């Protein structure tokens, strides 16, 4: 039997995703029952994998959650949509389909959910107006604060900072409702897409702007006020990663109208950056600063001259 590449059988971004999955599973079943097929793995290891699969009681494909997130993004933000919704009925039907999809996902976790899947899916959908409003304030903040931004439409369509925070705002609703697994799946999907790592537990106010964004890390118990701007490479982290600190505030509080420039690291649950403060690039901060502070890192750079610098600079990596 000819081998069919898995990449050709399963395209997660395709509208025919479920059909493709069925085809793939059917193909794998044929492989498992075909006496011609041989496998190089040790039989004991195969048995161990089988036993591990039997222990899994909460079967929930991560791809389904990511597909739901993409659907929500397309519903809320037309510049990201792959189809035009020409009537209010079309919008309602699309939203209803997403709610049904979410309910089906949650039904796989029914044994560990804090409430019935139907109730939780309804609560998530009811929070979408709030999520949308906050995301639009983020888009406005990015468009107003970045001279390179041509329009809010461009920000929504192409800026990784907007996408990461939008995904976070949805993931945070799952986190707030104590729904397991899904918050981190959604946040890590956004992390992989954008290079921006925001824990779903972080509390973020309105008009939040992440400029560029690569390498930004925001920890679980971080609290961020309104109109805060963060540049690439910023870490809002914990002073310690001791497991005993799991249920206490470990990450800093950033008050309103703070700007944090690239490469800054702010650590600790008791650390508060006061409103209207500016934290300069590469600052390492582990203690609170009052409002209107200016915190800068002063690097010491030594400049010297030699008669023939080319010889010194001629090195290879």
Entry summary:
The chain is of the alpha/beta class and 317 residues long.
Question: What does this protein structure show overall?
Answer:
The chain has 317 residues and is α/β, with parallel strands linked by helices. It has 3 domains: 47 residues, no CATH class; 138 residues, Orthogonal Bundle (serine acetyltransferase, domain 1), CATH 1.10.3130; 116 residues, Hexapeptide repeat proteins (UDP N-Acetylglucosamine Acyltransferase, domain 1, 3 Solenoid), CATH 2.160.10.10. 44% of the residues lie in helices and 10% in strands. Helix 4 packs antiparallel against helix 5, helix 7 packs antiparallel against helix 9 and helix 9 runs antiparallel to helix 10. The N terminus and C terminus are likely disordered.
Give the secondary structure arrangement, pairings included.
Layout: H1 6-9, H2 17-33, H3 43-55, H4 62-76, H5 88-107, H6 117-126, H7 128-145, H8 152-158, H9 160-176, H10 182-194, E1 197-198, E2 203-204, E3 209-211, E4 217-218, E5 223-224, E6 229-231, E7 235-237, E8 253-254, E9 259-260, E10 265-267, E11 272-273, E12 278-279, E13 284-285, E14 294-295, H11 309-313
Parallel strand pairs: 1-4, 2-5, 3-6, 4-7, 5-8, 6-9, 7-10, 8-11, 9-12, 10-13, 12-14
Summary keywords:
317 residues; alpha/beta; serine acetyltransferase, domain 1; UDP N-Acetylglucosamine Acyltransferase, domain 1; 3 domains; five-stranded parallel β-sheet; 11 helices; disordered C terminus
Mean pLDDT: 88
Structural class: alpha/beta
* Largest sheet: number of strands, sense, barrel closure: 5 strands, parallel
Report the total helices.
11
Return the string of H and E elements: HHHHHHHHHHEEEEEEEEEEEEEEH
* The CATH C-level class name of the largest domain: Mainly Alpha
């Amino acid at each position: 039997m000819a081998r069919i590449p898995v990449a050709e059988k399963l395209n997660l971004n395709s509208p025919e995703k479920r059909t493709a999955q069925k085809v793939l599973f059917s193909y794998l079943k044929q492989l498992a029952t075909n006496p011609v097929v041989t496998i190089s793995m040790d039989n004991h290891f195969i048995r161990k994998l089988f036993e591990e699969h039997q222990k899994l009681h909460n079967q929930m494909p991560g791809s389904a959650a990511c597909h739901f997130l993409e659907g929500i993004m397309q519903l809320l933000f037309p510049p990201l949509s792959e189809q035009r919704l020409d009537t209010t009925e079309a919008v309602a039907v699309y939203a209803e389909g997403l709610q049904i999809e979410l309910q089906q996902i949650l039904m796989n976790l029914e044994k560990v959910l804090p409430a019935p899947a139907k109730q939780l899916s309804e609560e998530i959908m009811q929070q979408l107006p709030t999520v949308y409003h906050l995301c639009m304030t983020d888009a406005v903040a990015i468009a107003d604060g970045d001279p390179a931004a041509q329009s809010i439409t461009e920000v929504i369509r192409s800026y990784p900072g907007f996408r990461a925070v939008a995904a976070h705002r949805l993931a945070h609703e799952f986190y707030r409702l104590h729904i397991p697994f899904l918050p981190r799946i959604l946040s890590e999907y956004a992390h992989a897409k954008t290079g921006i790592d925001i824990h779903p537990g972080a509390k973020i106010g309105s008009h939040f702007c992440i400029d560029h964004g690569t390498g930004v890390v925001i920890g679980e118990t971080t609290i961020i006020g309104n109109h805060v701007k963060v540049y690439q490479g910023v870490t809002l982290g914990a002073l310690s990663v001791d497991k005993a600190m799991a249920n206490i505030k470990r990450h800093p509080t950033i008050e309103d109208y703070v700007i944090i420039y690239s490469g800054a690291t702010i650590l600790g649950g008791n650390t508060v950056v006061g409103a209207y403060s500016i934290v300069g690039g590469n600052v390492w901060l582990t203690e609170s600063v009052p409002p209107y502070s200016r915190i800068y890192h002063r690097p010491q750079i030594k400049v010297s001259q030699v008669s023939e610098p080319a010889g010194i600079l001629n090195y290879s990596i």
